[in-house]
Amino acid sequence: MSTTTPTSNSPALLDAERYHQIQQFYATQMQLLDDGAAAAWAGTFTEDGVFAQNVKPEPWRGRAQITERMTVGLARVAASGLVRRHWFGMLAARPDGPDLVRTRYYAVVYQTPWGGRAEVYLSTMCEDELVRTDEGWLVRYRMVAHDGVG
Amino acid sequence: MSTTTPTSNSPALLDAERYHQIQQFYATQMQLLDDGAAAAWAGTFTEDGVFAQNVKPEPWRGRAQITERMTVGLARVAASGLVRRHWFGMLAARPDGPDLVRTRYYAVVYQTPWGGRAEVYLSTMCEDELVRTDEGWLVRYRMVAHDGVG
Amino acid sequence: MSTTTPTSNSPALLDAERYHQIQQFYATQMQLLDDGAAAAWAGTFTEDGVFAQNVKPEPWRGRAQITERMTVGLARVAASGLVRRHWFGMLAARPDGPDLVRTRYYAVVYQTPWGGRAEVYLSTMCEDELVRTDEGWLVRYRMVAHDGVG
């Protein structure tokens, strides 16, 4: 995976306007996923967007494949009776021109079994390339690195 | 409970100014609760504010009742020797005029027993109606849906 | 430790510009720590910055000591094979002039053993004095109070 370790106290902060837009984009995007809306979630990627994870041999490429694979994944979660919640936090963001932002952030997933107790399911470090389009901000590339995986 | 599933990548983002005000309002509000200040916490609701949970048969209505019920709840937590921390995250917010904002977000509660290890206590999905008043932002209606509860 | 319990719905909110800068500063700062960069992390404190914790008899004082102590701590974590992620949340912030901000927030640490399952490691309440300098925002004083510790 690409690693873009931030240098100390980077001078290239993102402006408040785009920073809060991306916070809201992430909230809306991941609520769609946790609501089980695979196709709408895939629609938050560009048409040729890439979703890579260090626990998968190949990235998922394009909205059609992302929809297909995530539909299968969400069906498995639903069948297990688990409620999953994706949280993003510690969002570092660097502008690369007006319409491209590179982010590096953490994501944690909580899960609650039906009638049971909530627990942490996994912890990750993520990197996105986000582009501003006529449809709003979209993910062009996402790399999710699960912690503790080689 | 009312469900307002966000549509993909909603165009009606909240502006940066109100978004960060609400982030700060939530931080202050829930620190009050975790500090054990039931009456001050109730004061972050409107005088006739409503606090509903899917684990309670009836919502709590108005500052007086919210104070009374939360005082009992906090006394129980204090007696158990647990430190609780309420975290809100993944905040999606939609304006409805200048002084009303509807939010949909996640909340997780951590708890730490005295001398013991921190753990996740519960995971929820929440919806608020927030109004801007002379006292600042206040909750007019809050619905907290605990995960894994029917 | 000093305790600055916020009063209800404080009128002295921080402006959006500085609030998002501090959110980004915290994200970058703690990613440095989790990446194992002790000296760079110490560089996010002022030259004479103080890092106090309720689980340590004495605060760490100045970048040199902070670097030295954190280098030891990070080596111990690395040797244990654990991946740690520091999350800050529920950020309340109050300006004290243009270049000083006092914050009160929560921090949680997740850890994942190599090949194992993520878990909550600890929950804390933190207070910072942040100053704006030619190097950007820096921590002049940080107090981390671990929950459940007397």
From TrEMBL, chains A, B, C:
Tell me the ranges covered by the SnoaL-like domain, including all copies.
16-142
InterPro entries linked to this entry = NTF2-like_dom_sf, SnoaL-like
User: Which protein are we looking at?
Assistant: Nuclear transport factor 2 family protein
Species assigned in the record: Micromonospora zhanjiangensis
Q: What is the lineage of its organism?
A: Bacteria, Bacillati, Actinomycetota, Actinomycetes, Micromonosporales
